[in-house]
Amino acid sequence: MLNTVKFSFILIALICFSTVNAQEFNAEVVVDAQQTGKNQLTVFKTLEQQLTEFINRNSWSSYQLENHQKINCSFFIIVKSFNNNQFQASLQVQASRPIYGSDKFSPILNFKDNELSFTYKEFQVFNYSPNSFENNLISVISFYLKTILGLDADSFEELSGNSFFEEANQIVNYSQQRGSGWLISGNANSRAALNRDLLSNNFQEFRQAFYEYHRLGLDQFYSDPDLAKAKIVSALNKVQAVNNRRPNSILVRTFFDAKANEILEIFSGGNPENHEAVKNMLQKVAPIHSRSWRQIKS
């Protein structure tokens, strides 16, 4: 079996001998401090620049990737308060992977984290350790990078993201007693809950559906659109089965938060007679996105 993945096509591209890089991400970081009333301070722009370099210049796996294979992601930090180097903020994390045979990208994560608090002094050095807590900001960013790597891997080879999810779990374990936003109790949308479900056997079918949706569905549109759409329907039915067993799970909610617009686009073309069952299923499993589902022609 080919070594876990790809990242943007190690599994499906021809081997080439051009120069490769150790870095895995093409990340954008935005720090919005308007709510603080202090957005003119240079500390916010410095933080933005340092985080961008921290993500893009470090190596987060053992893979050697070319520039076109890097994972696109973005981190939008909304600072709510800032005082004496203490930040209270929220974080929106988004990531995507390319769709084979096209110039399009498919979102694999769109997650809102409302519990981001950290201490940051302008120009402080950022270091990531896989086994020890440095500070809460680095733990949070590193956790999401490992999670993105795991989801990206899962989308190219079935259940191949385990090692990354386990590394993310290490971050959860050593951060729970030192930083905020890591506890499962009382927060069904926590980082720990997301990681727990990704590693749980109860959600293995969801991860299999994630692979089927991307690799057997989206990546086949260029060669056989009808078969690709059938595979996507099959994957969505598996997601529904998971939701029936584990209603309102964080994985299912996160999946549709990332995929609602894409699913609408997929089922906006073709024979609308075949869309009725999909539309009805989507209304049941992800009613929060009903506005999108109502636009599917059936």
The total of beta strands comes to: 4
> What is the overall shape?
globular
Overall tally of structural domains? 2
Oligomer category: single chain
Low-confidence stretches: 1-21
- The termini sit apart by 41 Å
Element string (H = helix, E = strand): EHEEEHHHHHHHH
Amount of beta strand? 15-25%
Structural class comes to alpha+beta
Whole-number mean pLDDT: 90
> What is the radius of gyration?
20 Å
Portion of residues within helices: 40-55%
Largest sheet: 4 strands, mixed
Q: What is the number of helices?
A: 9
Strand order of the largest sheet: 1-2-3-4
Structure report:
Residues 1-22 form the signal peptide. InterPro entries: DUF4835. This is DUF4835 domain-containing protein. Pfam families: DUF4835. Keywords: Signal. There is one protein chain. The chain is an alpha+beta fold and 298 residues long. It has 2 domains: 1-188, no CATH class; 200-298. Helix content is 42%, strand content 16%. It contains 9 helices and 4 strands, in the order E-H-E-E-E-H-H-H-H-H-H-H-H. The chain has helices at 42-57, 136-156, 162-175, 191-199, 204-217, 225-245, 250-266, 276-285, 290-293; strands at 25-32, 71-83, 86-98, 105-119. The chain has a 4-stranded mixed β-sheet. Helix 1 (42-57) links the parallel strand 1 (25-32) and strand 2. Helix 2 (136-156) runs antiparallel to helix 3 and helix 3 (162-175) packs antiparallel against helix 4 (191-199).
